Amino acid sequence: MEKEQTGNRAAKEEHVDEQESVEEFTRSARANAASEVNLSAKLSKDGQGSGKAGGFGEVWRLLKIARPEAATLGIAVFFLVVSSGISMSVPAAIGKILDMAAGKAEMPFGLDQTTFYLALGAFLTVGAAANYGRVILLRIVGERIVTRLRSTLFRNTYVQNAEFFDANRVGDLISRLGSDTIIVGKSITQNLSDGLRSLISGVAGFALMGYVSLKLTGVLAVAFPPVAIGAYFYGTAIRNLSRKIQQNLGTLTKIAEERLGNVRTSQAFTGEIQEVHRYNTQARKIFELGKKEAYISATFFSTSGWAGNMTMIAILYIGGGMVSSGDISVGELSSFLMYTAYAGGSLFGLSGFYSELMKGVGAASRLFELQDRKPTISPTKGTPVKSLRGKIQFNDVTFSYPTRPAVKIFKNLNFEIEQGTNVAIVAPSGAGKSTVASLIMRFYVPSSGAITIAGQDITKMNVKQLRRKIGYVGQEPVLFSGTIAENIAYGRPNATRAQILNAARRANCTFIGDFPDGLETHAGARGTQLSGGQKQRIAIARALLKEPDILILDEATSALVSLALQTLLTYANLLSQDAESETLVNEALNTLLRGNNTTISIAHRLSTIKRSDLIICIGGDGRVAEVGSFKDLSANPDGAFNKLMDRQMNGGDSIDVTPNKKDSDGQDEADLVGEQGDAEGEMTEMERPVKEARAEEVVEQVKR
Predict the structure, then answer these.
(1) Is the pLDDT score of 588 beyond 60?
(2) What is the largest CA-CA distance in the chain?
(3) Of the ranges 269-273, 522-526, 590-594, which one carries the lowest mean pLDDT score?
């Protein structure tokens, strides 16, 4: 009985736990404001941002893409006319040969049989050569157009402001730059050529059929209108399907790019099956659309093919009677039948041309939307920037991100940063520390107020020149898939080898000497061949090489081992290498801080805050809560800074407030949470690679 009561009590407690677990978070006023989303910068999925359906205006604009290649296309069209004209002479020649064989016609132009066949062979050879010229020219033109399209679109995409990339996923942009440009290039080169060939063959075929027999041509005229009407509706359906397919291909690319880029996180949470399911679900959507296109195409082509065959039977029936009555010869009927096949093939070709053109229109509408978009912050307009040395002032700055206009990050924010000072900006998590850096670098524009440097409003400055004077070391060190030298020189491509080496030495990049290729070592995609500390030091070297007037350190050691991660790795006996990396990074940061530039540190660690000349503490309301030196602010127990530090020490936010140790020279060293790593002994050579790999995985997982 007692066991039963205990079991019932446990079941009730479990039921209560289940009820508690399903309770949602209380919706705050900030959440209500965040629900007001502004996606004006978001590209439409089908490319119809204006809301207008694609029509002949879009077709004309699509064709105008080929205007720079007009001369080459003209030569290709000439070759097309020659090859098509020669091809259309073949049925007449065959009809004449049949009549000559039946003794009802003489050799043309008084030629003997051998000369006639040699001349016919040479004639057809010229047609083949013209066809070769047509194909090769159109392929080259097509590749040129695709290359030009991609270059133009990539350039136009790359100069867009941050709002655009906040609203659009990279995968969709890649899809537009990739598959959409190929479809457009094909539709206005090879497809256009095939369409012109079909048009010429069709017109010539009908004209020559009329010349042979108007009666038989009339039979074809009855069958033509239904097929033409069907071709129009088929093309319209294909255009709409093409847009949907390209839209879903963009979504598929987004899924693949995002998931493969974060594969370690997915594997850490054993999410492989659900990610494969997510990808397969989207792939099935594309399959269903492709299947629908297959049904529509099969219906159209089978119906039109059946109509063509029925027409051919009618021509044979009527033509056979005309041959019996002597109205036409066997050779003329044979020529007419071949012209009928040519004309029917041309009709099918025109149908295919129209459907491919509509596919091109569907893809082009997505490209035109991207091409027509103008950045709200022009990268090249504005007053020249020769120097950014001077006082930085935020004057009544109010700001909210463009995609969330109702959520105010800053409200009448005011502070000053003197030239040459080292300033730390601290704030609760999500209060806008990194937003200060984004505003100074003009990734965004304040909703109201002004930001001035040396008395000049930065919104009036040339953005490119402004950013050339600013060095930036971010939270996550971003490297590109080039060599270490290329990454260091990214902000100064014309730097000499000596300048690159000097910057690397100043940033403590001593690890470069451990690589066989030195500076020419490839960093891998996103720097995957390097550790977190190595990437961080390369990012610092990149900033040093620019010799900036303003240096922004956005939590520049956060990519290394944080307090919580240190505890985790101490248990795993893997701390010594991370401590060494962090020490070297801190030394590199000290090198940066010894310059005469203005340094703005988005504070993450207490050591960074302590070595700052001035601390600006921003409150959760988006205003400056307190300003002063570390000594002054820490002496005020009721101040906002001390309250924030208390909250950090109690685990309320992400700033690492563990004070760093000092070595004999007084330099900062990374502090360790405990001594378990040393106490548990040295790693063996067999254990080291395994544990290093585990450390890298854990670091990546916690960082993400």
Answers:
(1) no
(2) 121
(3) 590-594
What does the block give as tokens for 264? 């370690």
Mean pLDDT of the chain: 75
Sort residue 355 into left (φ over 0), alpha (ψ -120 to 50) or beta: alpha
**DSSP character for 522?**
B
Return the pLDDT at 451.
92
Q: What amino acid occupies position 219?
A: V
Reference 536, options 561, 568, 573; nearest CA is: 561
Task: Give the model's pLDDT for residue 629.
Answer: 87
φ and ψ at residue 377, rounded to 5 degrees: -115, 105
pLDDT-derived band at 215, boundaries 50, 70, 90: confident
Q: Looking at residues 663-675, what average pLDDT do you find?
A: 35
3-state helix/strand/coil string of 124-140: HHHHHHHHHHHHHHHHH
Q: Of 51-65, 128-142, 381-395, which gets the smallest average pLDDT?
A: 51-65
Burial class (CB in 10 A: 0-12, 13-18, 19+), 567: middle
Cα–Cα distance for residue pair 621/398, rounded to 1 Å: 11
Residues contacting residue 224 through CB under 8 Å, at least 6 positions apart: 347
- Angle, vertex CA 533, rays to CA 527 and CA 535, nearest 5: 25
Please give the Cα distance from 394 to 618 (Å, whole number).
Answer: 13
DSSP code for 177: I
CB 331 within 8 A of CB 96: yes
What whole-number distance in Å separates Cα of residue 704 and Cα of residue 425?
Answer: 23
The CB-side HSE value for 520 (13 A sphere, CA atoms) comes to 3
How many other β-carbons are positioned within 10 Å of the β-carbon of residue 570? 21
Please, which residues have CB within 8 angstroms of residue 699's CB and are 6 or more apart in sequence? 532, 561, 565, 578
Beta strands 614-618 and 598-602 are unpaired
Question: Token match 């254990």: residue?
Answer: 687
Tokens matching residue 245: 């397919």
Q: Are 343 and 202 in contact (CB under 8 A)?
A: yes
The pLDDT value recorded for residue 680 is 34
- Alpha-carbon distance of 620 to 476, in angstroms, equals 24
**Separation between Cα atoms, residue 50 and residue 121, nearest integer Å:** 56
Give the DSSP H or E segment for 688: helix 687-703
- Please provide residue 478's backbone torsions phi and psi, each rounded to the nearest 5 degrees: -100, 120
Cα 408 to chain center, whole Å?
29
Amino acid identity for residue 315 in this structure: I
Inter-residue contact 328 to 212 (CB < 8 Å): yes
Bridge partners of 425, per DSSP, are 602, 616
Residue 284 scores a pLDDT above 80: yes
- Going through 380-538 in order, the beta strands assigned E by DSSP cover 392-399, 410-417, 422-426, 448-453, 456-457, 470-473
| Pairwise CA distance, residues 344 & 356, whole Å | 18
Q: Is 607 exposed, middle or buried (0-12, 13-18, 19+ CB in 10 A)?
A: buried
> 626 pairs with which residues across the strands?
617
544: pLDDT strictly greater than 60: yes
Per DSSP, what are the bridge partners of residue 552?
472, 600
Give the whole-angstrom CA distance, residue 142 versus residue 136.
10
Looking up tokens 């195409």 gives: 297
Amino acid at 317: Y
Burial of 438 per CB tally in 10 Å (0-12, 13-18, 19+): middle
Helix, strand, coil fractions of the chain, as percent rounded to 5: 65, 10, 30
Higher pLDDT, 373 or 108: 373
Structure-derived torsion over alpha carbons of residues 362, 367, 369, 375, reported in degrees to the nearest 10: 170
Residue 100 burial class via C-beta count within 10 angstroms: exposed 0-12, middle 13-18, buried 19 and up = middle
